[in-house]
Amino acid sequence: MKFVNSYKEKLKKYNDEHKLKYYIDTMGCQMNENDSLKYAGIFESMGFEKGDENNSNVYLFNTCCVRENAENTLFGRLGMLKKRKINNEEVYIAIVGCMTQQEHILEKIKKSYRFVDIVLGTSCMSIFPEKLYKAIIEGERKVEYIDMSNSLEEEVPIKYEDKYKASVSIIYGCNNFCSYCIVPYVRGRERSRKPEDIISDIKKLAKEGYKEIMLLGQNVNSYGNDFKEKYTFPMLLQDIEKIDGIEIIRFMSPHPKDFKDDLIEVIKNSSKIARQIHLPLQSGNTEILKKMNRKYTKEEYISLALKLKEIPDVSLSTDIIVGFPNETEQQFEDTLDVVKKVEFDQIYMFIYSKRNGTVAAKMEDEITYEQKVDRLERLKKLYEETLPKLNARMVGKTYKLIVEGKSKNNDKLYTGRTSQNKVVIFEADDSYIGKVVNVKIDSEHLWYLKGTIEK
Ligand code: 5AD
Ligand code: SF4
Q1: Residue 15 Cβ < 6 Å to ligand 2
Q2: Is the CB of 174 under 6 A from ligand 2?
Q3: CATH fold for domain 398-453
Q4: CA 121 to CA 114: how far, in whole Å?
Q5: 355: which of 182, 258, 314, 447 fits an S-S bond (Cβ 3.0–4.6 Å)?
């Protein structure tokens, strides 16, 4: 569906006089962050200016429901805005994203947060301008369930914050139904964007000077499964590789079960695909993986990870959940065992969080919260013990990177990320910003590396 905004001119005209400011509060994953860039693009195309947390008029909460806490955060923030509404300030509140796809949230808003103006779910950008117009001009305040989670919107304006790297969604939704995960229920079924739309977006970005592209999808290697003609994720990568100006291609997340040899070959033969691959493990125990509906075993995961590590300079990152219902000590130790064998450069660690409506939510769980926290700590410790050794392998070598900008703590130092996604700090000056340079790594400091530009 092509994004058409028939309210653009009307709201622009209103803003000529009222100069309303917008503020977007994004929770959750990179997919949500990408959606928020689109909402920012929509706001700006209608003459809204970017404001901050305290001085804005339209507050858009782009919500997440993958793990706990987000609900409390949202309702806390709404409470704060209520005061400004009561004081008759021109304030509008919109809630969009994954959380509002759940009925209990809608009921809660209807009951206790009646001052909210707009509530929309996921993939609702095409109706957002209309809802905004109605809220601002007609004073409409509506909490309704509009399910557009299976739609695919094209040509939505997007406002990137970064100048050199940009994220591009290639597939929406998920068909995997991992037993702990709410995403398939709130983001609908897998829909792949047409290759020509993706390529044309990336060509435009390259022309504007973007050098690094992050391809996004809940499960990127399912890309193309919904096409009649064969066009796969590895084929898409090869086509993106041909685009002049793009230096680094990243993607997240692939599912280990769909990571086939053709994809490994394409990565191996590419000079642009990042030497960092995110390969979500979730658990290192085969029985737990079965209960999670992940469709691979401990051994299959290890063998895939080690195969990927044979590609020179490749680093791996992963997601791990500890404390899945009734995970035993032995089963948790299998996770530690995989972490020891694979040696990840980055691990996103989560304590299992029960999501109502998922299969795992009905599973018995005798593990205490303290035990789960203890496992998280042990995993963290193991990870931090491995990291210096992995970093040390990079010392003395030279890596190509894009100079992103000044380091926060020191005026003379600049930062960039290697293809392996390692932060490097080095001396440079403003003329280097946005340029691709070769940096020799001098030393490692756990969370970053220090280096020198080679001239
Ligand atoms: N509890 C804890 N972590 C979860 N994730 C997804 N659902 C849950 C849950 N219910 C984690 C997974 C996923 C990442 C984005 O969030 O590790 O890969
Ligand atoms: Fe959730 Fe699994 Fe889909 Fe990832 S692959 S979004 S964890 S259901």
Answers
A1: no
A2: yes
A3: OB fold (Dihydrolipoamide Acetyltransferase, E2P) (2.40.50)
A4: 17
A5: 182
